Amino acid sequence: MNVLQVLFAVSMAVWFVSEFLYKNILKSGKEDKKDKDKSTLNILWFAIPFSILGAVLVSHLTTLPIAGGSWIYYAGEGFILIGIIFRFIIIRSLGKYFTVDVTIKQGHKIKKVGFYKYIRHPSYTFSLLTSLGLGLYLNNWLSMAFAVIPPFLAFTHRINIEEQALIEQFGDEYIQYRKNTKKLIPFIY
To answer: Other C-beta atoms within 10 Å of 102: how many?
Structure first.
């Protein structure tokens, strides 16, 4: 194995372990308002591992290269690392208000600074960037589809539920915030 392959294996392990820890440590408390979440966490935990396994399996069974040259592997690994690191930063920036289930905590306020000035769900953005990196690293169009589409659909479903809870909690303040920001991709979507 060369250095890039080792880095890829380590980053995939870090990605899995970090998500596993988030899932088990950052749950909402009994006193938190979470009546809107209808098992979206379970959907995410089905969609994302399925997409990773599917992408890797497809890359071994088919040859549909995205690009020639080794640059694509480095670009893919770069996106994986950026996604993991910045998702961690986003989660830390929310502190006690970040939970893995859709929850409104006591004293919750809408964050509108940093990444939140441009996008409403940067944690999902960087998770999807990690998935995009996986697709690029595997250098296979079909793997890219497997890596990105299932998590994107799962996050889209979850965002709809989250935003409904936020509208119910914050009303016009959140509606106005929504008008001034994008969901996942700054200035685009």
So the answer is: 23
Pull the structure tokens for residue 161: 């539920």
pLDDT at 31 over 80: no
CB-based contact 52:143 (threshold 8 Å)? no
Q: To which H or E segment does residue 87 belong?
A: helix 71-94
Residue 38 has pLDDT above 90, yes or no: no
Count the helix, strand and coil residues of the chain and give each as a percent rounded to the nearest 5: 70, 0, 30
C-alpha 174, offset from chain centre: 21
How far apart CA 129 and CA 111 sit, in angstroms, is 21
Min mean pLDDT across 9-18, 21-30, 73-82, 109-118 is at 21-30
Q: What sign for the dihedral angle of Cα 73, 76, 82, 84?
A: negative
Q: What are phi and psi of 182, to 5 degrees?
A: -105, 160
Per-residue tokens: 129: 């960037």
Look at the chain and count its residues: 189
Is pLDDT above 80 for 32?
Answer: no
- 115 falls in which pLDDT band (50, 70, 90)? very high
The label of the residue with tokens 């069974």 reads: 61
If we measure between CA atoms, which residue out of 144, 136, 133, 128 comes closest to residue 70?
136
**33 class by beta-carbon count within 10 Å (0-12 exposed, 13-18 middle, 19+ buried):** middle
